[in-house]
Specification:
four-stranded antiparallel sheet; 37% helix; 5 helices; elongated; alpha+beta; Arc Repressor Mutant, subunit A; Alpha-Beta Plaits
């Protein structure tokens, strides 16, 4: 059996759903010139195959009381696979870590963390990051303002 590969209709579904994840199947079907049942089946398949991993609401963080966004860049004490795995597992555990990237270049990892304040960020660094024995150093880059936040993949 060949692995699943999305066709143009599937790509159309993905393109529309990434703009509006709650778009009714009827509207999807109309926009794609298909009937509702095949659209429903295709979405089930796209979810089962992992092309759609979640449907979420994007929140306006400023309306929730303001936010403090930081991008700590982290170097580990060594580059052993076991050390990297331990660090990555910890980052997955921490709800404050919105994104975590393994990098090339001067730093090993970059995080995106969202906090209510600088004080919360300071506590997070002291109690969850720099306490880890395999963290060598941390340099923080702080967001002054958000210029763009888009979650859609432009190459569909």
């Amino acid at each position: 059996m060949e692995p699943f590969k999305p066709d143009q209709t599937d790509i159309g579904i993905l393109r529309l759903l990434q703009e509006d994840g709650k778009m009714p199947y009827k509207e999807l079907a109309e926009k794609l010139g298909k009937s509702i049942n095949p659209i429903n089946e295709r979405i089930k398949r796209l979810k089962a195959e992992g092309y759609i991993s979640a449907t979420v609401a994007l929140l306006d963080l400023q309306k929730l009381g303001g936010t403090f966004i930081a991008f700590p860049h982290i170097n580990l004490t060594n580059h052993l696979e076991s050390t990297m795995s331990l660090f990555m597992a910890k980052m997955v555990e921490y709800p404050e870590v919105m994104e975590c990237y393994h990098l090339t270049g001067h730093y090993d990892f970059m995080l995106k963390v969202v906090m209510p304040s600088m004080a919360h960020y300071n506590t997070f660094l002291k109690e969850k990051i720099t306490i880890l024995p395999y963290v060598g150093n941390v340099q923080s880059f702080l967001a002054l303002s958000e210029v763009k936040r888009k979650m859609t993949y432009p190459y569909l």
